[in-house]
Design goal:
The chain has one domain. Helices cover 81% and strands 0% of the residues. It contains twelve helices and no strands. It is globular.
Length: 244
């Protein structure tokens, strides 16, 4: 995979400008903040906990990502196909990697802004207890890495979908599956070898170490490789369409 080219940066800027001028983006951010905060403070009752921890706050991240990520990525390619601009992009002097990385970077910035906005929660709670900063940093790193893999998968489904609705619904179903695969092993009596394989394929399973404050290089590498894999498949989809 090549480094960032001027074409990639230009496309990322264009996509980001379009997203920041869309009310839907601000709706996505608002949903993310409200869902996490309501779950944390009211459903999980933070103020009744015996320890100063944000783990319950981050424990819902994999679940909320199943809605948040498709909402971010559904327009990326599906809208281009609907308006006919996808064909125009494929005829321009952009490589498939330029196009895919441009879309990915703009989506990643949107997600990163959403995560930055959540910093208001730990900052407001610091005076109430002795929070472990190392654990909080690990949780945010994990949330970003998990988001990268989910975004790459969401973009892939957007490139395969004919419209935004199918891109969103398909993304939700697939992300819900890969996020919660590890829950199957606790519900089913499976041989350990099969259970280990299913757990390994679950994105949420690899996020658990970050939620515990552990920066495990194996999980970091997993998310990076999964992100690259889905982005690579996305470039092959574009190449197929270009020569079809």
């Amino acid at each position: 995979m090549k480094g960032l080219s001027s074409q990639t940066v230009a496309l990322a800027k264009k996509e980001l400008y379009s997203a920041l001028n869309s009310p839907a983006t601000y709706g996505v951010w608002t949903f993310f903040l409200l869902f996490n905060s309501i779950t944390f403070f009211y459903l999980q009752k933070f103020f009744s906990l015996d320890s100063a921890t944000l783990r319950p706050y981050f424990s819902v991240i994999p679940l909320v990502y199943t809605l948040l990520i498709p909402a971010i990525t559904m327009k990326s390619w599906a809208e281009e196909r609907k308006t006919g601009t996808a064909e125009l992009l494929l005829t321009m002097p952009f490589s498939e990697w330029d196009l895919v990385l441009g879309k990915f970077l703009s989506s990643l910035i949107i997600l990163a802004i959403a995560l930055v906005l959540t910093l208001a929660v730990p900052l407001s709670l610091f005076p109430l207890g002795n929070f472990d900063m190392g654990v909080i940093v690990s949780e945010y790193v994990g949330a970003l890495l998990l988001g990268m893999a989910a975004l790459a998968l969401g973009l892939l489904f957007s490139s395969l979908a004919k419209n935004q609705i199918s891109a969103f619904l398909g993304g939700v179903v697939v992300l819900l599956t890969v996020m919660l695969l590890n829950q199957l092993t606790s519900l089913m009596d499976l041989p350990k070898a099969i259970a280990d394989i299913i757990n390994y394929l679950s994105l949420a399973f690899h996020f658990e170490s970050f939620a515990r404050g552990i920066l495990d290089t194996r999980d970091i590498l997993f998310f990076i490789l999964v992100t690259f894999l889905f982005l690579f498949i996305n470039t092959r989809v574009l190449l197929f369409r270009k020569w079809r």
